[in-house]
Sequence to fold (395 residues):
Amino acid sequence: MARTSQRYATVAILLHWTIAAAILFMIWLGWNMDENEARYQLHKSVGITILVLTVARVIWRLLNPPPAQSDGLSSWEATTSRLVHLGFYGLMIALPLTGWLLVSTERSFDVPTVIFGMISWPDIPFPVAFHPVLEMVHGRMAWLVIFLLGLHVAGAIKHEMTSDEGVLKKMLPAITADPLEVRPTRKGSLELSFGIALGAFALIALSPVLSGPQWPVRERAPESSLQQGVVANWTVDYGGSEIRFSGRHDGDIYSGVFSDWDAQIQFDPDAPDAGKAVITIQTGSATANKKLYTDSLKAGEWFDVAVYPAATAEVFQIAEADGSYAAQLRLNVKDRSVTVPFQFTLNLMDQQAEMTGQTEIGRKSLDLGQTSDPGNDWVDDAVTISVRVSASRLD
Ligand code: HEM
Ligand code: HEM
Fold:
């Protein structure tokens, strides 16, 4: 018997099964990601991917209407089928959108979104008061997907078995023995639909960069009594110097550097106790081994870069014993000030010097990350600071 139905075009079939599988995975993931930051990040990444694919899919469908409904459907079945499809499209947009709004309004565990560990994803400015409602709606919509899926699959199975040509073949690639004729597509629609979806994605991802610097660059640091009194007699070779911080996050080592800092050093090896140094650090220049950490550090509860773009470190009370040095290090971060012992060694070569030193501070004492993790469940309190400075003498 001649076949009359057409099957969906390959693009529609690929998008249907990719998004269907991704949504089912996401529901499982949503229910199984408690206390697992990596899974949260994966949930957000796959969710935003579903949103982008859905935008492409909707545009593609507007340009390429689907095959006609199967003949065997009664009028209520045809209406239900249309409503289920419409409901699915609504949920494919609303689920990722409410998820995105949910993380944008989160204040107690404010971890940034970094898509697949590579692309910083901005928050949507939205009233925080909506957070509980969004959380509830987001979770309930997953149940709605399951309900619609029940109707969808039941309908597909029923009509696969009762209609002559079957309905499932319409949504399957041409791997079946006797495939239906494929529905023709409009030329250029793939490029247009994916171009718009990916263009919108790129614009959103770039929006923080396009709207200018996120924090004032090279802002003055808090004044200190030392800062006024330093008569610098060394010039630092920043290329050969490094300020590194490291510690533990969720069992893994994190480590990073500040790429923009400036040191005023007054030091005479013959009179070390008169030595002092003030280092001004641009907090926004901190880069860690994972983009998620780098983005997190800029946030309000960490360096709060928008409000406190610079921090200072002051070295004083230097004393020498057996070729190594002990000093005091005062760190002024945000509105906190903490003094810790600082050990360092000096390798003096004519007019050059190499200094290496290390110390440990507690992040709680500097009010770092105290909203999301005050109990050190994820990030250890201890942060190791290692400094290597290469400098040449001016006088
Ligand atoms: C969460 C998972 C799923 C979602 C969100 C989903 C969504 C959709 C949507 C929106 C359509 C309409 C396409 C259009 O006309 O533009 C559709 C069609 C279709 N889906 Fe699914 N689907 C899912 C899972 C499934 C499963 C598991 C099956 C297999 C039984 C299936 C079989 C079909 C078939 C056969 C059609 C074509 C129906 C027709 O033309 O009458 N889908 N699906
Ligand atoms: C189709 C896409 C998505 C599906 C199917 C989905 C599904 C789910 C499910 C089933 C849960 C568990 C809800 C509960 O425990 O009651 C959940 C939670 C969550 N989702 Fe999604 N989600 C999607 C997209 C997103 C996106 C794009 C984001 C963020 C960018 C996101 C962020 C979250 C967050 C933060 C939670 C935890 C909420 C809480 O605190 O309980 N989701 N999601």
